[in-house]
Design a protein that fits this description.
Keywords: Membrane, Transmembrane, Transmembrane helix. With 125 residues, this protein is mostly helical. 94% of the residues lie in helices and 0% in strands. It has one domain. α2 packs antiparallel against α4 and α3 crosses α4.
């Protein structure tokens, strides 16, 4: 049952979060506009605007906007992740290079110590 509920909620959300749905909702809301205007009652007209038109139409428009913003955030996250991975690879390469250089310096240091001992031995004679 849980999978069905998730599937249904996803389908409804995907359908409502479109501009086509906003246009359909606007059309549905406009059907009752003439009766609201004919009433001449300002409360009925304001209620039609607030409860019928705005709620129906803005629901879809806001969902479309959220989807666009979410996509933008997702793109930024993916770009940041890709850049972070590239920087991590550069850091790993730099660490590898530093390790090689350290080994070379260690070898040079050993050679210098060896030469210094040889010079000391020659001077001691």
């Amino acid at each position: 049952m849980k999978r069905f509920n998730v599937w249904l909620a996803t389908k409804v959300t995907d359908g409502v979060a479109t501009m086509w749905c906003a246009y359909i909702f606007a059309g549905i809301a406009l059907i009752s506009l003439p009766k609201a205007l004919q009433s001449g009652d300002s409360i009925v007209i304001v209620s039609w605007i607030a409860q019928t038109f705005l709620q129906l139409v803005l629901l879809s428009i806001i969902m479309v906007g959220q989807k666009v913003q979410s996509k933008s955030v997702e793109d930024t996250i993916n770009e940041t992740h890709t850049a972070s991975l590239a920087e991590f690879e550069l850091a790993k390469e730099a660490r590898k290079d530093a390790h090689v250089e350290l080994e070379q310096l260690h070898k040079i240091s050993q050679d210098m110590h060896k030469l210094m001992k040889e010079v000391e031995a020659k001077l001691a004679r």
